Amino acid sequence: MTSLDKKYLMLYFAAHWKSTCADFRTKLDKIYSQLKEFRSQHNDFELLLISADRYEDEYFQHLSGAPFGAVAYEDETCRTALIKRLKVRGVPVLAMLSPVIDGDRSIINYQLPPSFTCSSVPDFPFHPKKCWDLKDDPLAMNEEKCILIFCELSDDIVQECVKEECVLAANELQLQNAKVNVFWICDPNEVSDCIRQSTCLSLTEDIQMILLDLPDDSTYYVPSQSINEDMLAQEIVKFYHSPGLKRRLA
Predict the structure, then answer these.
(1) What is the pTM (predicted TM-score) of this model?
(2) How sure is the predictor about 1, in pLDDT bands with cuts at 50, 70 and 90?
């Protein structure tokens, strides 16, 4: 694949037998076409299918009509190595790699979020976002520690302010190379209800915050003092660096 060395490479891990992959293929064709157009002046982007199919005919069925290419099905060594390197545990998955630099590609994004659509194209090359609505990708809590901001009972204006402050905090933490995601929760849902129950966090009209670290033996932290809502971004950053007493989920 030396012809692709100077290009950003998006890898599409999929299997034809899985219905969610078939549904995603239709969306992906449109995304690919827009990305090629978006990067046409640079000619620095390509996408390849990495098949997880059990049989070669399934591989060809899934690739049929695709505007993009694929790693050959018979090259099982390459496909297996990519699945292992990108830590793929399920499909479909979209991952993003850099052009080849000093003989190797770096991983820009192990897994683009489920909310990835044509509207995401201007965000190329899709560095991981460190802040979003928890309901869009709750499984991300399993990968890295996260700060959760609860504001379910706040009005629309306050919730929009919370989102803006979360983004500011996440950007600042990213500049500090902090390995943490920031999520907001504006609408009660099954996941947020489970977190509240596990951390004994009652539903109130106040903005609430916890630091959840599932990779570290399912531990969590709560602020020892009330939150200054007018300086929420600063409060989030400060809380990350000084979270206080470690607790374990119930």
Answers:
(1) 0.62
(2) low
